[in-house]
Amino acid sequence: MKTVISNLTNVSTHADGSLTLGYTSAKENHTIELKADVLAKLYVPLLSSHADDLNSPLSRKIRPVGLRRFRFGEEIGMSFLVGQNVSLHLILDRSLAAALQKLLETFDDQSTWNVPTPGSGAGAVAQVPAPPGENT
Asked: Which 8-state DSSP code applies to residue 99?
């Protein structure tokens, strides 16, 4: 059975990491609660975009208003503040630190970008080494 959700009436998160969605469909009110482990499976599809097309309707463009770095056990990462008390936390592989530093050092220098001009439809991703164990 397919349900088309035309209107979210309530969205809330809970201390256990779950998410509750209230919605209307065919003039009926419904509630769905997604547990944290189910919600974790949605993060990548909801936040990701195809790597080569920033102009795609499916492309996610999030403009952070603040940044910070963090340690989580032995891991390191970046937090991007995207709204009031809302952040995206990305854990980075340490092998990407040098690539990230180079990208930041040349941030405004278009001669160092390996991307075409906007609207050309070609690839628009900075080439950085894949984390160990990942094939590209």
From this structure: H
Please report where in the chains the tokens 């952040």 appear, as a residue: 87
Q: Residues in the chain, how many?
A: 136
| Structure tokens belonging to residue 71 | 């340690």
CA 109 to chain centroid, in Å, comes to 25
Task: Evaluate whether 27 touches 4 at the Cβ level (below 8 Å).
Answer: no
* pLDDT digits 0-9 by tens, 58-67: 788 888 999 9
Joined together, the tokens standing for residue 74 give 């032995």
Could you read off the pLDDT of 21-50 as tens digits, one per residue?
999 877 788 999 999 999 989 888 888 877
Report the C-alpha gap between 19 and 22 in whole angstroms: 10
Q: What is the pLDDT of residue 22?
A: 94
pTM recorded for the entire structure: 0.60
Q: How far, in Å, CA of 122 to CA of 84, rounded?
A: 35
Structure tokens at 106: 């040349």
